[in-house]
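DM from R.C. (forwarded with permission)

"hey, sorry to bug you on a friday — could you get me a structure for this? deadline for the figure draft is monday and I only need the backbone to look sensible"
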Amino acid sequence: LYFFYFDNMSLFNEKLKKITLKELLSLIIVLFLISYSFNLLNIVHIDSSWIYFFVIIYFMFKLRNEFFTIKSDIIEIFSNDMLKSILAIVVLNIFFSYGMLYLSNSILDVSQSINLTNSFLTGGLLATIIISPISEELIFRGVFLNRLRLIVPTLFAVLISSLLFAALHSFGSIFSAFIFAICIAILYLKTDNIFVPILAHFLNNLLAELIVLIDVNKIIFNDSIVVMGMSILAIVSFVLILRFIVKELNTIKDNNF
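My reply, with the result:
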């Protein structure tokens, strides 16, 4: 995988780094308690998508004075070299994710493939494609990763924040989510631009949703030839992703990004 390094300071990102874990976790706990209370009392149903939505509102409020500075950040993510890196990671991760779903299918011996693909559809299209990528990147890369870097080496901060991110996913997706989280954490550290992992996360979820919607006959899970082909691509993708991760994590360790 080719990676182009951008060396510029983002004012938006610098302000994002100042948001503390204590402040963010306090907000999430309050929102969770409100959600739990409302659902328990049958006042109104509030799922995780709404919690994520209010988290985004919180970030918008905290970063409101820096929104005029994001033009250069947006331009950066659509440069040719950056898009190539993002798309390469997204495509390889999609193949690898299906490989993990096949593996979990074998381990759990689940006959209904729809149960495995539900992980892509949780929360609806809008939540999966728009709300989750924005909120989760602001939380896990924007705050968790940056704050963890203040107390542990960057390498450990990447692994811990990626594990926390992966813990949100279902059994068949945990490992692939962990690998994907490491990849986009690397992208974030190398660019210092939160919009890079947001775009990668958005494209990953969008592509996953499109595959599910297009594959109405579920041939990806039921056709033996397709399964074999996807499994081979999953193995190749894993090797390429692993080489990228090892190389970049060594660079991060040596240079302490």
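R.C.: lifesaver. Residues 110-123 have pLDDT under 50 and may be disordered.
me: no worries. Residues 224-255 form the longest helix (32 residues).
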